[in-house]
Design goal:
The protein is mostly helical. It is 75% helix and 0% strand. The protein is built from 26 helices and no strands. It is flat, with a radius of gyration of 63 Å. Keywords: Coiled coil, Exocytosis, Transport. One of its GO terms (biological process) is exocytosis.
Length: 829
């Protein structure tokens, strides 16, 4: 093994020595391109490093074999001196030093090359700059040459243009001179003798050259008239020239006569071609006629002969829209008929527009004349028969439609005519102000519109009230006697407020507002008209509800009169008293029915006011906003208008309280017995039930106030119930002053007070509840012993005065000498 290792080692050493003996050569080319230091270094050391790796592997293998076989008996291993760990290091160091030397040498070579390149670049740059300077001088010279050339070209062009203008002017002058000579020739022919048109050139009689003849005749006529006018001014300023040239006056007369004859001839040809629908011939004649007064006569002539303006056609329009003269026209039928008629007119105008465009050189002017004729002739004649303005002093009766029929017809006619104007604008009407023309058709009606609207609303209201009154009278005649025989309300025949009627008032007003919006496009005028119309509604609702409440109050007043009629004295027979009691019950039934009727009237009045307020918020207020103060003024008017109804309602509610309290007093007087509060001391268990009078009164109040709870709401309800509660407290207090109480009667009274207090608690009136709680405390004066009275009202000094009055009602007031006791207990009282 040792020999083998030595052999291998000697081989490796020899190989390394042979590598190190060979000189390393580095070339500049090695550093060009994609240079990598790692690759260069690898190429330098890879021939040495594999030999070192093989030797290391062999040494590891040899050490393991020696350790296994050369062990000594005494357990020690043989120590073998190992070779150096990296024997090629000397070769690598030598190689690295050689490489460094070569790299330094290469750097010097590269520095030399760079220096030479810098010198060459500097020389080339200097040469290049010199060349550029020379080129710039050459370019500047070239630009100067171009500018000089452009200036010369421009000068030549201007000269050529001037020459061309002179040539054109000369040609134009030559042409004008030639035409002037011909015109002078023709002018002399027309100036030969008055009325003599036989010696004219063939041009003026040749039908194939009519256009040329018309043009020349118009030129000659214009020149001759201008010359005559100038001569006239000269004669006015220079009197001595009275006999100066008058020759052209003959030419003016002859030219006028010729132009008239030629125009008539062309119009005849135009009419003949129109009947045959020869559009080309019509267009040729129209073009020539346009030279005569700009063709106005031809346009008007064409429009005037249109079939749509025949008298028979206009009469048919009236029959279509108004229908049978014996029947009352319906706005809906008139609207449909107007839509049909206006559509026919629009279609006819559209058809004529196609012909006019193909024939006339200025179709917009012809369309303007055609549409103007429609809006000034055909439409006004129809509207004149459709819109007959009625008298405000003696308006037509509602049976004939009243003023409302006129207003509805006016709205239909205005709306449909505006639609016609819009459609005709779409077809084409030139520069015609068709919108202004349409407005002028209705100007006379719109000036008095708002007065008619007010009068119509008043007429509708009057007719409605008369209708309701008639229905009420018929109903009263059929049911009045039966109702009275059964003790029904005297007010049953009175006309009651109806929310449906108020809704109808609002519907009238909505219709009137829609017409205001139609007739008043400007916000300011619209707001003024809307305010006026809405004020009519406020007046109607105010009057209707106030009168309805007053009628309901009449029922309460009549019921009160019945109650007073049957009040009897004390000394009457039993039979008379029984009859009076029966009549009083009938009066009470009438009062209760009148109370319910008035509450229904108040409820419907509130609903009516709410409808008006909702209508104002939804439809009126937004129309008033554009005008400062209009909204606030209308709100104030609304409050003022409803104040009369509020006054009637307040008076009626006071009467309702009087009616209720009158019946309460009657029931207490009839049902309350002296023994209710002064039961005999017979050992029978006291009755803790409310007295019969209390039961009857509470039952009556529960029944009658049900209508008040339903009809009233908010502050009105609270105020009414509070007032009624206070009156009930006062009435009961005064009622109980008529009776004497023993302890058991005091307990019965306390039970009655509890019953009354439980009922009035539904009023939700804290002040009333407090008063009945005080009554409950006062009732204790009848229950406690005389010596306990002083402690009974400790902490409640406010009821001492009432307590003294109640103590005087005790059965033992005199026997127990309570008067002296009261004086000692409350000396200050």
């Amino acid at each position: 093994m040792k020999e083998i290792r030595d052999g291998v080692k000697s081989n490796k050493i020899s190989s390394s020595e042979s590598f190190s003996s060979q000189p390393l050569v580095l070339d500049i080319e090695d550093f060009k391109g994609d240079f990598s230091f790692d690759a260069l270094f690898g190429n330098l050391v890879n021939e040495l490093l594999p030999a070192f790796q093989e030797e290391e592997a062999d040494s590891i293998e040899g050490n393991s074999n020696i350790g296994g076989s050369d062990s000594l008996p005494n357990g020690r291993s043989t120590q073998i001196q190992s070779n150096p760990l990296f024997p090629e290091v000397d070769s690598l160091l030598s190689m690295f030093k050689s490489s460094c030397s070569q790299l330094v040498e290469l750097q010097k070579q590269i520095d030399g090359r760079l220096y030479n390149l810098k010198k060459d670049v500097a020389a080339q740059d200097s040469k290049h700059r010199k060349t550029l300077g020379e080129l710039e001088k050459g370019v500047d010279g070239l630009f100067d040459s171009f500018a000089s050339l452009d200036s010369r070209i421009s000068s030549v062009g201007q000269t050529a243009a001037k020459i061309g203008d002179h040539l054109q002017s000369a040609d134009s002058q030559r042409e004008t001179a030639s035409q002037t000579m011909e015109l002078i020739k023709y002018l002399m022919e027309f100036n030969s003798s008055p009325g003599d048109l036989m010696e004219l050139s063939p041009l003026f009689s040749d039908d194939s050259r009519v256009a040329e003849a018309a043009s020349i005749a118009q030129k000659l006529r214009s020149f001759a008239e201008e010359d005559v006018g100038r001569q006239g001014m000269t004669m006015q300023t220079v009197p001595g020239n009275a006999t100066a040239s008058r020759g052209l006056e003959v030419a003016v007369g002859n030219l006028q006569e010729y132009c008239n004859e030629l125009e008539n001839r062309l119009l005849s040809r135009f009419d003949a071609a129109s009947q045959k629908r020869e559009l080309s011939t019509m267009a040729e004649c129209a073009k020539i006629l346009s030279q005569f007064n700009r063709g106005t006569s031809a346009m008007q002539h064409y429009v005037g002969l249109r079939p749509m303006f025949d008298v028979e056609v206009m009469n048919a329009d009236t029959r279509l829209v108004l229908g049978d003269q014996d029947s009352l026209p319906s706005p809906s039928n008139v609207a449909r008929a107007l839509s049909t008629l206006y559509k026919e007119i629009t279609d006819a105008v559209r058809k004529e527009a196609a012909t006019i465009t193909a024939v006339f050189p200025s179709p917009n002017d012809v369309m303007s004349i055609l549409v103007q004729r429609v809006m000034e002739d055909r439409v006004p004649k129809l509207l004149e028969k459709l819109l007959v303005k009625p008298s405000l002093v003696h308006p037509p009766p509602m049976g004939e439609g009243g003023l409302l029929l006129y207003l509805r017809m006016l709205a239909v006619g205005y709306e449909k005519t505006q639609e016609l104007a819009k459609d005709l604008r779409g077809v084409g009407c030139g520069d015609l102000d068709i919108e202004g023309l349409t407005e002028s058709l209705f100007l006379d009606h719109k000036d008095m519109y708002i007065e008619y609207e007010q009068a119509s609303l008043r007429q509708l209201y009057k007719a409605k009230i008369e209708e309701l009154l008639s229905e009420s009278q018929l109903s009263g005649e059929s049911t009045g006697s039966i109702g009275r025989s059964k003790g029904a309300s005297i007010s049953s025949s009175h006309q009651q407020i109806s929310v449906t009627v108020v809704t109808e008032f609002v519907r009238w007003n909505e219709e009137a507002i829609s017409r205001c919006t139609l007739f008043s496009p400007q916000p300011a005028s619209l707001a003024a008209n809307v305010k006026t119309v809405f004020t009519c509604l406020l007046d109607q609702v105010s009057q209707y509800t106030t009168e309805g409440l007053e009628r309901a109050r009449d029922g309460l007043t009549e019921a009160a009169a019945l109650r007073e009629r049957f009040v009897l004295g004390t000394s009457v027979s039993r039979r008379v008293a029984a009859a009076a009691a029966s009549a009083a019950e009938a009066a009470a039934a009438a009062g209760e029915s009148s109370f319910r009727s008035f509450m229904v009237a108040v409820q419907r009045c509130g609903s009516s006011v709410a409808i008006v307020q909702q209508y104002f918020a939804n439809s009126i207020s937004r129309l008033l906003l554009p005008v400062d103060g209009a909204h606030a003024a209308s709100c104030e008017e609304m409050a003022t208008a409803m104040s009369s109804a509020e006054g009637a309602a307040y008076k009626g509610l006071q009467q309702c309280i009087e009616t209720v309290m009158a019946e309460v007093e009657r029931l207490l007087s009839a049902e309350q017995k002296a023994t209710d509060y002064k039961s005999p001391d017979d050992g029978i268990v006291p009755d803790h039930r409310p007295t019969n009078a209390c039961i009857r009164v509470v039952a009556y109040l529960s029944r009658v106030l049900e209508a008040a709870f339903t009809a009233l709401e908010g502050l009105n309800k609270q105020a009414f119930l509070t007032e009624l509660g206070n009156r009930l407290h006062k009435g009961l207090s005064n009622h109980w002053q008529k009776y004497t109480f023993n302890p058991s009667g005091g307990l019965r009274l306390k039970r009655d007070i509890t019953e009354y207090g439980d009922f009035v608690r539904s009023f939700n009136a804290p002040t009333v509840d407090e008063k009945f709680e005080s009554l409950s405390i006062l009732a204790n004066v009848f229950i406690v012993a005389p010596e306990s009275l002083s402690s009974l009202f400790e902490g409640t000094p406010s009821i001492l005065k009432d307590a003294q009055r109640f103590i005087q009602l005790r059965e033992d007031y005199k026997s127990a000498k309570l008067a002296a006791t009261l004086s000692s207990l409350w000396p200050s009282s």
